[in-house]
Write a structure and sequence with these properties.
globular; WH-like_DNA-bd_sf; mainly alpha; DNA binding; DNA-binding MarR family transcriptional regulator; Arc Repressor Mutant, subunit A; DNA-binding transcription factor activity
């Protein structure tokens, strides 16, 4: 690895860490009026279209299975999600939205649309799409790395 490659890896990581913080702050801002936290919204969003196991949610969101399990339990306790039997695995239940969870998730929509318009206005839609494509490509490249001790 050249010095430049090391600098680029560090710069990419530091920028991603900053972006993560910025997106979490935005997510908290968007979720709060709907009575959610960013974490709750993240898990509800993962099962918006279909029920998933806790492990599948964790893989999709890039967070630990334990963190998803704790969050799913809270969402179930609050009536925003429910557990369903999983035909593929007896012990691994599926997390699914309840009507209350779907309503809470939907309540975020107008605010989300407003912030999407603002961000697109700052960057321009094409540049925002290019940024998303670059971030996706970077994520895929990181997935392809062989991490060894």
């Amino acid at each position: 690895m050249t010095k430049r490659e090391q600098e680029l890896l560090s710069a990419a990581a530091l920028t991603a860490f900053k972006l993560n913080g910025q997106f979490l702050e935005l997510a908290e801002h968007l979720a709060r009026p709907a009575g959610l936290t960013a974490t709750w919204w993240q898990v509800l969003g993962a099962v918006l279209h279909q029920p998933l196991s806790v492990s599948a949610i964790a893989r999709e969101m890039g967070i630990t299975r334990q963190a998803v399990q704790r969050t799913a339990d809270v969402l179930v306790d609050r009536g925003l999600a429910e557990y369903h039997d999983n035909p593929a695995h007896r012990r691994a239940k599926l997390v699914a939205l309840t009507p209350e969870g779907r309503a809470a998730n939907s309540a975020i929509g107008p605010h989300h649309a407003q912030h999407a318009r603002q961000l697109s206005g700052v960057l321009g839609e094409d540049q925002l799409a290019d940024a998303v494509a670059a971030l996706t490509k970077l994520s895929e490249a990181l997935d392809a790395l062989e991490l060894s001790d």
